[in-house]
Design goal:
By secondary structure, the protein is an alpha/beta fold. It is 50% helix and 8% strand. The protein contains nine helices and four strands. The protein has a four-stranded parallel beta sheet. Helix 1 packs parallel to helix 2, helix 1 runs parallel beside helix 8 and helix 5 packs across helix 8. The longest helix is centred in the last third of the chain and has 21 residues. The chain is globular, with a radius of gyration of 17 Å. It starts with a strand and ends with a helix.
């Protein structure tokens, strides 16, 4: 079994952001022993990361220039130990391709719900999982599986908004929705967390939303 696979629809915005910013941090502590990749359920094969997502990737310390969109297939799923999707519908798609993936696929935002109590409850900072041991990814899967019943009962929407072709504010919003999960994920392996680079812009986005609602 391999490592970590991120999945969205086009493999242009959400899953590349998650892959690239996670990889640059985990590679620093795993020395490349944790495989990290991404793909799309309906990929725009061969295309690169569009602006402004490419800018957000760079602001988070990663390089988007070499990314090219890939189509998800059953072999990728069989090779992965953990698959994190942007939306629940993506999980249904990949299970149709490779039914065993049902047992090791989750939404990105589920990671936030499952890891937050474990990371914040620790008295001292430190890794929950050994980044140099590829088997640690399977141990993370067990943690995520134990949290499923509680999260399902909450009834929250775990989807990350698809920003492709939309406003810069929507790209910021997508990153803000992914950031807590990715931050907790890399920190759980002892890596540096993500900077909150969209914090100021998110306040502007929220203010704009309030103005638009008030004008209706």
């Amino acid at each position: 079994m391999g490592g970590l696979l991120f999945v969205c629809e086009g493999n242009l915005c959400r899953s590349p952001f998650a892959e690239l910013v996670t990889k640059v941090r985990l590679d620093a502590v795993s020395h490349g022993r944790l495989g990290i990749a991404s793909a799309g359920t309906r990929a725009r094969v061969g295309e690169g990361v569009p602006e402004p997502m490419a800018s957000l990737v760079r602001e988070n310390g990663a390089d988007p220039s070499m990314h090219r969109a890939r189509q998800l297939d059953a072999e990728m799923l069989a090779d992965a130990s953990l698959v994190l999707v942007a939306e629940g519908a993506h999980r249904s798609s990949l299970v149709r391709l490779h039914p065993p993936a049902l047992h090791y696929s989750f939404t990105m935002r589920h990671v936030e719900h499952a890891l937050m109590p474990l990371v914040t409850a620790r008295d001292e900072p430190g890794a929950l999982f050994d980044a140099t041991d590829p088997g640690s990814v399977s141990r993370l899967v067990e943690v995520l599986r134990r949290g499923l019943d509680r999260i399902a009962a909450d009834g929250d929407d775990d989807s990350v908004v698809d920003p492709y072709g939309r406003s810069a504010a929507t790209y910021d919003r997508a990153v803000l929705q992914m950031r807590p999960a990715l931050d907790l994920l890399v920190r759980s392996f002892g890596a540096d967390g993500l900077p909150d680079v969209t914090k100021g812009r998110s306040r502007s986005w929220l203010a704009l939303g309030r103005r638009l609602r008030a004008s209706r």
